[in-house]
Amino acid sequence: MKTLSSLLVAFGLCTMAHALPEDSAEPIKITSDTGGYDHQINEGFYDGNVVMVQGTLEIHADHAQFKMVNDELEEVIAKGNLIKIKYLPEANKPWVFGEGERLEYYPKKNLLVLSQRAKLTQEDDVVEANRIEYDTVNKKVRALSDKKSDRVFFEIKPKGK
């Protein structure tokens, strides 16, 4: 498996999994064709045209589930033909857009994972790989391929002064 790690400071995506700070205090709003929430295990399950919104964070998927611990979002697992995610990392910064067939989001760990045809863009900067992991505490992105023949792709445009 080929791996490429890079500091995100140069890439401009250093706040990838951190939407606006006030977003974590916002309620989670979910629409779908079908869904439910089990209060015994604190998990929600949603199928068909799922849209999850929390502040500026927005996830579109075919299927999604999330888990709460102590009334806080612990994890989101979303699957679909092509999951779409967008959010605003900071006020006055460009929107971040991502896609893949699977999304794993662990807000307490500051970890967001897109896999299977994963792609991330912010303005003109692009990362493409089979799996993209974001560690926002350490300001790193990690792009991984799944086969020797696959490659990861980074396109980083110089920022004007």
From TrEMBL:
Q: Which InterPro entries match?
A: LPS_export_LptA, LptA, OstA-like_N
Q: What is the name of the protein in this document?
A: Lipopolysaccharide transport periplasmic protein LptA
- Pfam families, from UniProt? LptD_N
Which residue numbers delimit the Organic solvent tolerance-like N-terminal domain? 29-138
Record flagged with keyword Signal: yes
Name the gene that codes for it.
Answer: lptA
**This protein's UniProt keywords:** Periplasm, Signal, Transport
Question: Where would one find the signal peptide in this protein?
Answer: 1-19
Give Gene Ontology CC terms.
cell outer membrane; outer membrane-bounded periplasmic space
State any single GO MF term. glycolipid transfer activity
Chaperone among the record's keywords? no
Q: Which domain of life is it from?
A: Bacteria
Q: Which PANTHER family match?
A: LIPOPOLYSACCHARIDE EXPORT SYSTEM PROTEIN LPTA
Q: Name one GO biological process term.
A: lipopolysaccharide transport
